[in-house]
Amino acid sequence: MKRIASILFLLCFIPQANAQNLYEDALTAASYAYSHSKKAHGANNVFHTQEYADKAIEALEKVEELADKCGCTDANETAYEAKTNMVSSLDQDTYERSRYYAKQAKDLGPKLLEQLTDCQANNGSSESYVVDAASDEEEEAIAVASEEVAQKQRELAEQRRQLEIEQQKLQQQIAEQQKAKAEFEAQRAAELKEQTVVKAKAEQALQKLESALQELSIAFDDESIFESQKDYLRSENDLQNETLNDTKSFYVNRAKELTKSAMQQFAGYTEN
Q1: For residue 81, which of 98, 55, 56, 99 has the smallest C-alpha distance?
Q2: What number of helices (H) and strands (E) belong to the chain?
Q3: Distance CA 45, CA 8 (A)
Q4: Tens-place pLDDT, residues 97-121
Q5: Torsion of CA 208, 209, 215, 219, to 10 degrees
Q6: Other CB atoms within 10 A of residue 252 CB
Q7: Are 98 and 92 in contact (CB under 8 A)?
Q8: What is the pLDDT of residues 5-31, one digit of tens each?
Q9: Do 101 and 92 form a contact (C-beta atoms < 8 A)?
Q10: How would residue 231 be classed by pLDDT, with cut points 50, 70 and 90?
Q11: Cα–Cα nearest to 105, from 178, 30, 164, 46
Q12: Contact by Cβ (8 Å): 49, 95
C-alpha cells in the first residue's frame, strides 16, 4: 500500500515536470534562434547570412511548436513572424536585402524570450526552470538575451524621458511665441489707434491752413490765386503698412509742401 501511495505521489508531478520541460525546451530553442539570427545579421556576405538564417529557421520552427503546446499564443505568433522574416532572408539574391530580413528576425529575439519567460511565470511551475541541464552556450545565450532585453527597456525609458523633455520645450516655445504675438498685436492696435488720431487732427489742421491761405489770397485780390491740393487726405487703410513715426512724417512733409507752394504762389503776387 505504501508503495502504491508513493507511486501515485510521484505521478502527480509528471504533468508538471513535462510542462516545465516544454518551457525549458522552448527557451533553449529561442536562445539558439536568437543567437543564429544575430550571426545571420552580422555576417559579411549573403552566403553566411543565409547559412545562419537556415539554422535560425529550424530553431524558430521548434519554438513555434513548443509555444503552441505550452499555450503561449504571443510567443507562437512572434516565432512565426521571425521565421517568416528568416525565410524571406533566404529568398533574397543580394546581401543587403538578405541582411535586412535577418535583422527583422533578430530584433524579435528579445521579445520572443521575454514572452516565453512571462508565459512560464504565469502558467508554469513556481520553480524556475533547471539551467543545470543547459550547456554553457545555452546559458550564455539566455543571459545575453536577458541583458539585451533589459538594456532595450532602459533605452526606451530614456527615449521616452528625452521625448517628454523635448515636448515640454516645444510647448514652452509655442507658448512664448503666442505670448509675443499677442503682445505685438496689442501694441500694433494701440499704435494704429494713435495713428488714426494723428491722421484726423493733421488733416483737419491742413484743411484749415489751406482755407486760411485761400482767404489770405482773396484778401489781396477779389479772386483767389492759391491752388488747393488736398493730396494729404487718406483712408485708414493707408496707415496699416506704416508706423506712427511714418504717419507723423507724412503729414509734416505735406505741411511743408503746402507752405512752400503757398510761398511760391504769393511770390508772384504784384500790386496793381
Answers
A1: 56
A2: 8, 0
A3: 57
A4: 888 998 998 999 898 898 888 888 8
A5: 150
A6: 11
A7: yes
A8: 343 333 343 344 455 678 888 889 888
A9: yes
A10: confident
A11: 30
A12: yes
pLDDT tier at 201 (50, 70, 90 boundaries)?
A: very high
Cell of 186: 496689442
Q: How far is CA 15 from CA 20, 27, 144, in A?
A: 8, 19, 30
Q: Which three cell numbers stand for residue 26?
A: 522552448
* Distance, CA of 248 to CA of 175 (rounded, Å): 35
Grid cell of 123 as nine digits: 502558467
Tell me, what amino acid is at 272? N
* Cell 513556481, located at residue: 126
| pLDDT classification of 132: cutoffs 50, 70, 90 | very low
Reference 81, options 73, 71, 69, 70; nearest CA is 73
For residue 217, is pLDDT > 90? no
One-letter amino acid for residue 132 of the chain: D
Task: Find the mean pLDDT for residues 143-155.
Answer: 78
Place of cell 493707408: 238
Which set of grid coordinates corresponds to residue 21? Answer: 520541460
Q: Identify the residue with better confidence: 179 or 215.
A: 179
Maximum separation of any 2 CA atoms in the chain, in Å: 158
Show the CA angle centred on residue 177, arms to residues 176 and 181, nearest 5°.
120
71 to each of 68, 131, 141, how far by Cα in Å? 5, 22, 24
